[in-house]
């Protein structure tokens, strides 16, 4: 489905920040209002994955195969609600899209932090991160061709939402000024994690607001243990898959690396009308191959990328039970339930 958008963006000074914990709204600070008034800023939350590796755990917690983004694994919110709240300090909710998958409808329609229908982009099926990203870019290019967009996975944990907002805000500012590059958020590692993607930074590119940006020499997608140790010793960064850039910059990346996928979406978008999107999208998704944005786009185009090391920010990708176990507080009922799963891994 394509979103139906208002002709004007409401005055954010009149908004109150959404609080999924229902503890009461608060008004935004002057600094937040200033940042949010940049009408070129958009955000896309990627929430269409199946979370297969975590299904044994989520099945234990919920009694069914609930994708992890719709589960409460840490704190009192689902991972999707946490992501929405975290991003709301940087991009207003009316310019935040959420990409989901039709087979998960019973989960995303009952989320406490419900997403307005106009902000949902529903894929007919899960075909990987590249189609999900290109679907949202196709919509955004029609609505805001000069926009700057950030892509955010919905299964992350950070130690500081304020530090996260500062780093991502700077990435938006860099992307606004340097529209030919896509900026990625990198995390200085505290261990040689072989299950993460890694970024090998190059020479210094930009410096502003105490946050430097570097060229990208190479991506390493889930390297060996020995290589991960070498990368850590050599200043490599964990790849969070948080990416900020102009809509046109992302489209240029895909045009260079996955031209056939771009052609397929372009051909459909020319004939697509708001009242007939379901059938056309189903036909499109039935014929396109599954594709991974990291492996098939980022790895192929390092010269068009830059990385911001988020120094002082601790990050965990909650993709496997062991990481969830390390993240939640000890001695909780939820952790006691997870112990058998952790032992099986």
What does this structure look like?
The structure is a single chain. The protein is an alpha/beta fold. It has a domain at 37-179 and 241-290 and 315-344: Spore Coat Polysaccharide Biosynthesis Protein SpsA, Chain A (Alpha-Beta Complex). The chain contains 13 helices and 13 strands. It has helices spanning 30-36, 55-62, 79-87, 105-108, 129-143, 161-177, 225-233, 247-257, 259-271, 277-287, 293-298, 321-327, 333-344; strands spanning 16-17, 26-27, 41-46, 96-101, 120-123, 148-153, 156-158, 182-187, 197-208, 211-221, 237-246, 305-309, 315-317. A five-stranded mixed beta barrel has the order 8-11-9-10-12. The longest helix has 17 residues, at 161-177. It starts with 15 loop residues before the first strand and ends with a helix.
- Average pLDDT confidence is 81
Detail the poorly predicted runs: 1-36, 335-345
Q: Which structural class do the helices and strands define?
A: alpha/beta
- Helices and strands, in order, run as EEHEHHEHEHEEHEEEHEHHHHEEHH
- Under CATH, the topology of the domain at 37-179 and 241-290 and 315-344 can be stated as Spore Coat Polysaccharide Biosynthesis Protein SpsA, Chain A
CATH superfamily descriptor of the domain at 37-179 and 241-290 and 315-344: Spore Coat Polysaccharide Biosynthesis Protein SpsA, Chain A
Instruction: Classify the helix fraction into a percent range.
Output: 25-40%
Strand order of the largest sheet: 8-11-9-10-12
The Rg value, from CA coordinates, equals 19 Å
Oligomer: single chain
CATH architecture of the domain at 37-179 and 241-290 and 315-344: Alpha-Beta Complex
What characterizes the major β-sheet? 5 strands, mixed, barrel
Shape: globular
What is the first-to-last residue Cα distance? Answer: 39 Å
Which CATH class of the domain at 37-179 and 241-290 and 315-344 is shown? Answer: Alpha Beta
Beta percentage is 15-25%
